[in-house]
């Protein structure tokens, strides 16, 4: 019990340190309208996607911040279900790079590896989709989703800090519960080290990198570098496979592609990364 409390406390401190600053930074960049000024950097990616240059703002918001900001910028563009599938597949793999790569750094996986892996895998995924003779039918959806507007910089900081703190508390509570449940199951039923590896993968698949990594941070001393590399690589490609795809499915994106292709790529790329590492 004492070990579980210590692990939960250390994980909570790490989550607070990672979540809150990045959340506030994203709101500051949006508040000062800086994001549109740097979105041109991502136009080559939209060209590879076969999407209009206007989508680059959504891609920039997704890569640098989160999927909610990306959808807010993409929703008014009137994308087709096929285009939403392309966008959802790429951003499902590459969203929130600064914060999620920093979390992976705690597991010993470098920022350079994480960034290159996720961007190249995201591009590979959309190239596969564009090559395949797919016919994704549905109606073009055009909505207006407003980002939060604030009367002053102070109001924005207060609101951002409140939302970031609420998100951090939510994550801390869930990760703490998972840590305690996992420890109880391991001590009473399984008593196997391998359980940590599989459990963290399933946690990441269904709940996301932050949750899955939260479990791994407690158990990483028991895993060798190859296991950490495999799990980290897998989770960076296939994570949050319920909530994230659902955001794009609302606009007509194909769920089988958004989920299935990411799992297939995660297995293949993770296995390849470990084989390369061992050689």
UniProtKB/TrEMBL annotation:
The keyword Transmembrane applies. The chain crosses the membrane at residues 12-34, 55-78, 116-136, 156-182, 194-216, 228-249, 256-277. It comes from the Bacteria. Keywords: Membrane, Transmembrane, Transmembrane helix. This is Transporter gate domain protein. It comes from Thermodesulfatator indicus (strain DSM 15286 / JCM 11887 / CIR29812).
């Amino acid at each position: 019990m004492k070990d579980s409390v210590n692990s939960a406390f250390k994980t909570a401190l790490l989550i607070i340190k990672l979540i809150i600053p990045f959340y506030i930074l994203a709101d500051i960049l949006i508040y000062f309208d800086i994001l549109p000024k740097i979105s041109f950097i991502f136009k080559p990616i939209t060209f590879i996607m076969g999407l209009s240059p206007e989508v680059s703002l959504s891609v920039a918001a997704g890569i640098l911040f989160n999927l909610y900001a990306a959808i807010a910028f993409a929703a008014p563009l009137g994308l087709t279900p096929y285009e939403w599938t392309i966008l959802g597949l790429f951003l499902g793999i590459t969203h929130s790079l600064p914060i999620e790569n920093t979390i992976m750094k705690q597991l010993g996986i470098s920022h350079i590896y994480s960034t290159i892996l996720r961007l190249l895998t995201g591009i590979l995924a959309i190239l596969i989709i564009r090559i395949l003779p797919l016919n994704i039918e549905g109606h073009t959806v055009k909505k207006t989703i407003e980002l939060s507007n604030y009367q002053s910089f102070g109001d924005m900081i207060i609101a951002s800090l409140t939302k970031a703190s609420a998100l951090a508390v939510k994550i801390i509570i869930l990760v703490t519960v998972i840590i305690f449940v996992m420890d109880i199951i391991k001590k009473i039923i399984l008593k196997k080290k391998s359980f940590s590896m599989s459990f963290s993968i399933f946690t990441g698949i269904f709940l996301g990198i932050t949750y899955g990594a939260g479990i791994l941070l407690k158990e990483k001393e028991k895993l060798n570098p190859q296991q950490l590399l495999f799990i980290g690589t897998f989770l960076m490609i296939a994570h949050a496979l319920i909530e994230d795809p659902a955001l794009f499915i609302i606009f007509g994106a194909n769920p089988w592609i958004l989920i299935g292709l990411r799992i297939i790529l995660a297995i293949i790329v993770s296995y390849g990364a470990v084989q390369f590492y061992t050689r």
